[in-house]
Amino acid sequence: MPTAHNAAKKGEIAGTVLLPGDPLRAKFIAENYLDQPRCFNMVRNMLGFTGSYRGKEISVMGGGMGIPSVSIYSYELFHHYDVKNIIRIGSAGGLQEDIELRDIVIAMGACTDSNYAYQYELPGSFAPIADFGLLEKAVQSARERGTVPRVGNVVSSDIFYNQFTDVNRKWASMGVLCVEMEAAALYMNAIAAGKRALAILSISDHLFREGELSAEERQNGFTEMMEIALNTALKID
Q: For the chain, which terminal residue's Cβ has fewer other Cβ atoms within 10 angstroms, N or C?
């Protein structure tokens, strides 16, 4: 049944969904990679499409910015539409000195400053991690196209403009590769639902160096990440 945030009917969304933050990136993928894409959602302009990629049905939908937004869309996809796999494809800010613009980062784990996990009433700190099967397939897909991905910890932050200016240095000192705003909640929702999730990220800027990609480059220019995610989806049984 449709929800307050998603107009799709049962059966209109595939078992595997690519989830960029930007709905226009979802539109770009649908128009440039999917055969016969069909729009299943326009509520709040959070565009969603289902089509065929090399003979396999795949959906792509925007998930918005930040943990509150991605948590709503991924929860509904998992619980209301019986989606089995969600692959986030998003941008991130580099933290390590050897990370460059457009590098591909595959998030093995997602640290966070969010309190999202409080709802599970756990007796300690929870460590959100990716599904290893999806992660393994993504690394394989990247290597098949000649990409050497960085695989490791990322941090999902609730705060874009942080008043504490040293927080990113502290995360970097613990080996965290980059900062983004969604993966931790996506991983928690997947684990709690008994489903599978992965975040594949493109570096759009660096927190300690000048230079960043434009909004248009972020929307339409992350084709390497998109193709890795699509080819990962092909490997899912």
A: C
Tokens of 72: 């709503």
CA distance to 19, 75, 232, per residue, from 83 (Å): 12, 10, 16
98 is catalytic: no
Round to whole Å and give the CA distance between 17 and 85: 6
In this prediction the pTM is 0.97
Q: Report which of 37, 79, 94, 97 is spatially closest to residue 61, judged by C-alpha positions.
A: 37
Question: Cα–Cα distances in Å, from 36 out to 48, 57, 58, 78?
Answer: 13, 10, 11, 24
> Could you say which of 82, 98, 131, 205 is catalytic?
205
Closest C-alpha to 178, from 72, 90, 116, 117 = 90
pLDDT-above-70 percentage for the chain: 100
pLDDT tens digits for range 40-68? 999 999 999 999 999 999 999 999 999 99
Task: Say what the pLDDT of residue 57 is.
Answer: 98
Strand 85-94 versus strand 104-112 pairing type: unpaired
**Residue 236 φ/ψ, nearest 5 degrees:** -80, 130
Q: Return left, alpha or beta for 154; rule: phi > 0 is left, psi -120 to 50 is alpha, else beta.
A: beta
- Per-residue pLDDT, averaged over 137-150, amounts to 98
